[in-house]
Amino acid sequence: QSTLVVAEHSNDTLTPVTLSAITAASKLGDEVSCLVAGTNCAKVVEQLSRVQGVKKVLLAQHDAYKGSLPEELTPLILATQKQFNFTHICAGASAFGKNLLPRVAAKLDVAPISDITEITSPDTFVRTIYAGNALSTVKCNEKIKVFTVRGTSFEPAAKEGGSATSEQVSAPSPVGMSEWLEQNLTKTDRPELTSAKVVVSGGRGLKSGENFKLLYDLADKLNAAVGASRAAVDAGYVPNDMQVGQTGKIVAPELYIAVGISGAIQHLAGMKDSKTIVAINKDPEAPIFQVADYGLVADLFKAVPEMIEVLKK
Amino acid sequence: MTARVLVGVKRVIDYAVKIRVKPDNTGVVTDGVKHSMNPFCEIAVEEAVRLKEKKLVQEVVAVSCGPQQVQETIRTALAMGADRGIHVEVSGKDYDSLGPLQVSKILAALAKKEEASLIILGKQAIDDDCNQTGQMTAALLDWPQGTFASELVIEGDKVKVVREIDGGLETIKLNMPVVVTADLRLNTPRYATLPNIMKAKKKKIANMKPGDLGVDMTSRVEVLRVDEPPQRQAGVKVESVEDLVSKLKEAGRI
Fold it and tell me: Which residue intervals define the domain Electron transfer flavoprotein alpha/beta-subunit N-terminal in the entry (chain B) (predicted)?
């Protein structure tokens, strides 16, 4: 067995989901290589070569890799595959991995397996279907297994303790059918939603975007990330990148505080693996209470400011 | 002007239905269960119809793969404003093992046959949650891909796409022909009105088989079993904020 993990990074730092993908790859065997493609990513190569479980770091640098366009990265991965003959190719199930790996798989004429939550054997994987309402165990009989890894289902690999070698791979000539123009990332000093230890999320009960300030204040007391239900996103209170749920982000923090969220199935799919769930909702019948470890039936506009006060003590 | 847009529409169990796993663990119960068009496919159809209304495209063709019943899904797309439909008939064992790779091959073959310059699909189906078909169709055609789109603008022979990514938004420009997959915020799909539903009955749906398109339906992915997810037990109700905070402190969570 030998596995290629396609690393996701910002040229300076490795994205946490890549560490989870490395853990998944290590379960398949100890031949784990990581491919870093970018414009100026010496720092990421250095970080990756210390990650536990990584044997080899493959580096390809070219201006064409700016913005990680799948049209440009796919030929690189195919060339790398041709050179090393991996049995498995994986990446994190983030916007990056979901965009890229199916394209690679189709070029290899293999069916990819999305968003796996468990590896049963080198060809058998568990993944969720129907927004987490069923678990499907699938056997992949393809010659090369291509899959993406759900970050919350695999512990991140240790950042220190490894000693990988690194090697340059040559970049195929640019394809030039796509152009990356710009990125508008939501600026925040708070932890990133999918890797935060504490997440505070708001739903339609917040009644407006302005009222989310309450949650930001609470989050700041807890060093938490702030998320939202699809209902709050659909109502225009907050941007879509805050959405927790099957069609948004999957999170599994140590503490998840759901405020004014009724608990639609598709929202539960995105957070029910959290270690401790707190629900604050004025409707005692809200389905969110069925998954909450601690439920508080209360008006959030009273309870949240009160909680901020109590935490100040 | 872009001549033709192909839109994929998938028939899935309605999003509001509570899913039940079959007692023999071979799948989920689909018999007698309400089905509808995949919500992301509705967004794709809406976007294509809006492009036509803006006179940026000439024709919208709705495609679905599956048994006889998927014609209902195609009719829904026609009632929303698509011009005609193509039903690629897949049934029995082939339908049971039908996956994104086979569908992508069908869509790619149809795109060539129909000389489409734009394919719009939903970003994922709410049954298998794969999120693969758009990317794979683009790969098979060697077209660029604008996935998870929240904005789509045709600019001459290029398409500008604003994409939903993990930390926010990203803008890319792609050469036509192109595959675009729809995310939630691309638009709000319309409801089909009764007159349009009546009109849709007169629109044509062509019928073909994967073999007519030269597509091999072999699947090398086997579903071994389908299980209920572990149920989370409800915990306790707390009486006050003070009580909540002290319980969280005891549990070491804050």
Answer: 25-217
